[in-house]
Design goal:
The complex is a heterodimer. Chain A has helices at residues 7-36, 44-62, 65-89, 94-116, 136-144, 148-153, 157-175, 177-187, 189-194, 199-225, 236-246, 251-273, 279-285, 288-301. By secondary structure, chain A is an all-alpha fold. The longest helix of chain A is centred in the N-terminal third of the chain and has 30 residues, at 7-36. In chain A, 51% of the residues are buried. The model of chain A has no long low-confidence stretch (mean pLDDT 91). Chain B is an all-alpha fold. Chain B has a domain at 54-300: ABC transporter involved in vitamin B12 uptake, BtuC, CATH 1.10.3470. In chain B, 72% of the residues lie in helices and 0% in strands. Chain B contains 13 helices and no strands. Chain B has helices at residues 2-27, 32-44, 47-72, 80-97, 103-132, 136-156, 194-211, 213-223, 225-230, 235-259, 279-289, 294-318, 323-353. In chain B, helix 3 (47-72) runs parallel beside helix 7 (194-211), helix 4 crosses helix 10 and helix 11 crosses helix 12. Chain B is globular, with a radius of gyration of 21 Å. Residues 355-360 of chain B have low confidence and may be disordered. Classes of the chains: A mainly alpha, B mainly alpha. Chains A and B meet through helix 4, helix 11, helix 13 and helix 14 of A and helix 6, helix 11 and helix 13 of B.
């Protein structure tokens, strides 16, 4: 145990935790926007898988991470259009429609992977700041700094972007007209409608934003791991949905939840690789975040109220 | 006329999904007709394949029958995966614990263990919803994760096949004794007792839901909880029993997956679908496709079972990955849930063309 509690190992573990948290954070922030507008999207995991494969394939073929991100973004947007159309215009039940999106993403990403790639070929991982072209040299000395280096600077650009999105999404939801509309249609669509806010349009855009972020989350995951395989996410998208409830629909608390997941995972893997705990204990520890989430939901359920119109389709008739 | 309409909507959804599948096969540079032939041949071509299809449909039917109970009570059970695993773990533990027990005693015991394991795993989110207002979609998803990790732990540790210790360490139990195998119905065939058990379960669910006071209460709670409460029905108790029963049937699916398998052991790959083959999700698809009616879920499960076995042949004959079946399942869900609007529209048209009161 003592070999874990050295400053450098702790810092490295925290650094890993931050990186692990990114896919959860991106997906959960997106889901927060959608849910604030009253729409639950259970299909996040499927969208992440397709976005993740798209990005992986783009990098495999062109070696361009920017293109990978763009593909993830595009895939997320497309899946969002489908989901928004089905739930907003066809009034389909949200919980189940999401399962449809999930199964489609799970099957289709696997189909494309087997057909186009076959064996899991590794790709170049997302470069950390010091490995970036042109400006990389500036960051090299920063990464070398003890403790602070691995904690704050040994990350890729998407990591910083994800954490910058936390205040950005808060601002979007709380300070802009669009955000006000989103919250209004999520709380009381009838009232919003009578004030001239288009419920359908607002929800449509909110879902697109959420789904796009899910696609980017998947792209980040596959580019961080530098690989793709069947069911790469292994349920991260479902956890992201739970994190939105866990974080009581507030981006800051959603971030706390994502970091908790990252921290537990990073610590577990570090302990196992240091031989502090055997595989068995590591498997038991892997249950912890899910159990913590359930306990948090029990504690929060009676205290925190979500968007009142969540999962309720709106129609004027 | 309305009945015809009720059946035409899911069939239309399936047709749309299959057309999409055909387009995908075209894009992969194969002949869709040959693809369809391979699927049909793979699912129904020989007696063995037909048996494989029925066996493949069994867990879907059990999960699906359970889903109809939960959904009729307006409880969304996404926890089929976890409940299958819980049932499989408990029943396998029982079989490992008392290996020498005679078959006539052991089989009912492992079935009971599966029902109890899955039932508990379902009743937990039920109780959390009823007494702590925890959203059951979230708690069932979280309990899926807990169950998967619990299985990983047990199959790599306490329950691992002693032969695997120190070698490749495949996460699996030892092969169970032959007296634990579900008896086959026809000699030399893979068709086992699980198939009639699942059909019987679906019929019993139908009787329970539509012919007993318990089923009436469950549906009343699902239809309008406030009215049910006013009529003196305990909403809380019925939510717990709906999810408990739903979970128990999924647990039974776990029993069938272990004790009806050729390898006769519980084995995983560490991932979420390694053992279940996503039956916990595909069962939802089958139930939805069957209009959330337990009896219609029987042919519906058989259809989805045939899609799964057919896809295996599709992969063998035309090298088209069998993941196609899962993707099509997702599309079918989307088409079916979107069809409510279409159905309502058709309903209105029908009502207009017929005199009011005619269409009942």
């Amino acid at each position: 145990m003592s070999e874990f509690f050295t400053i450098s190992v702790l810092a490295a573990t925290l650094g890993t935790a931050i990186r692990f948290a990114v896919p959860y954070l991106l997906a959960a922030l997106g889901e927060t926007i959608g849910q604030r507008s009253g729409v639950l999207n259970l299909g996040v995991d499927g969208t992440m898988l397709l976005g993740g494969f798209g990005a992986y394939y783009a990098v495999l073929k062109t070696d361009s991470h920017s293109l990978g991100i763009l593909v993830g973004l595009g895939v997320g947007l497309l899946m969002g259009v489908v989901y928004a159309y089905v739930t907003v215009f066809l009034d389909a039940k949200q919980g189940i429609s999401g399962i449809g999106i999930y199964l489609f993403g799970l099957g289709f990403s696997d189909l494309l992977f087997q057909e186009l790639v076959g064996t899991p070929l590794p790709i170049r991982p997302l470069p950390t700041l010091d490995k970036l072209p042109v400006v990389g040299g500036l960051f090299e000395p920063l990464v070398e700094i003890e403790v602070i280096g691995p904690l704050l600077f040994d990350h890729n650009l998407l990591t910083y972007l994800a954490f910058l999105l936390v205040p950005a999404v808060t601002w979007l939801l709380m300070k802009t007209t669009f955000g006000m509309n989103v919250r209004a249609v999520g709380e009381n669509p009838q009232a919003a409608d009578s004030l001239g806010v288009s419920v359908a349009k607002t929800r449509f855009i909110a879902i697109l934003m959420g789904s796009t972020l899910a696609g980017v989350a998947g792209a980040t995951l596959s580019m961080q791991l530098a690989i793709f395989q069947h069911n790469l996410t292994n349920g991260i998208g479902f956890i992201a949905v739970a994190l939105v409830y866990f974080g009581a629909w507030r981006p800051r608390w959603v971030m706390a939840g994502a970091l908790l997941y990252g921290l537990v995972t990073a610590t577990r893997i570090r302990w196992q690789s240091l031989g502090i705990i055997p595989q068995g204990a590591s498997d038991v520890a892997a249950m912890a975040p899910a159990i913590i989430t359930i306990l948090a939901l029990v504690l929060l359920a009676s205290r925190v109220r979500g968007p009142a119109a969540l999962t309720k389709p709106f129609s004027r008739h | 006329m309305k009945r015809l309409l009720g059946a035409s909507v899911p069939l239309g959804a399936a047709l749309l999904a299959f057309m999409f599948g055909a387009i995908m096969i075209l894009f992969l540079g194969e002949d869709p007709i040959a693809g369809l032939r391979a699927i049909i041949d793979g699912a129904f071509g020989t007696g063995d394949r037909l048996a494989a299809t029925a066996v493949r449909a069994t867990p879907l039917l059990l999960v699906g029958a359970g889903i109809t109970i939960a959904f009729r009570a307006s409880v969304i059970n996404i926890g089929g995966e976890g409940q299958i695993i819980a049932g499989a773990l408990l029943s396998t533990a029982v079989a490992l614990w008392i290996p020498g027990t005679p078959k006539v005693l052991l089989i009912p015991l492992v079935i009971l263990a599966g029902l109890v394991g899955g039932g508990i795993w379902g009743a937990i989110p039920g109780a959390l919803k009823a007494y702590a207002s925890v959203n059951e979609i979230l708690s069932t998803i979280m309990l899926n994760i807990v169950a998967i990790q619990l299985m990983n732990y047990l199959l790599r540790g306490p329950m691992i096949d002693p032969i695997e210790v120190g070698t490749s360490r495949i996460p699996q139990t030892q092969r169970l004794t032959d007296n634990a195998a579900l008896p086959t119905l026809i000699d030399g065939s893979r068709l086992h007792l699980g198939v009639p058990i699942a059909i019987l379960a679906a019929v019993l669910v139908y009787i329970m839901l539509f012919r007993t006071p318990l089923g009436f209460r469950l549906r009343a709670v699902g239809h309008n909880p406030d009215a049910a409460r006013a009529a003196g029905i305990s909403v809380e108790k019925n939510i717990v029993s709906a999810l408990g029963m739903s979970g128990a049937l999924s647990g039974l699916a776990g029993v069938v997956l272990v004790f009806g398998s050729e390898s006769l052991r519980l084995v995983t790959d560490g991932g979420s679908a390694g053992f279940t083959g996503s039956a916990g999700f595909n069962g939802i698809v089958a139930a939805l496709f069957g209009g959330l009616h337990p009896l219609w879920t029987i042919p519906s499960s058989f259809l989805f079972g045939s899609l799964l076995t057919g896809a295996t042949e599709l992969q063998r004959a035309l090298q088209i990955p069998n993941a196609l079946a899962i993707a099509l399942n997702g599309l079918i869900v989307l088409f079916v849930v979107s069809s409510d609007r279409v159905r309502a529209w058709l309903d209105r048209r029908l009502d207009k063309s017929m005199r009011p009161g005619d269409a009942a």
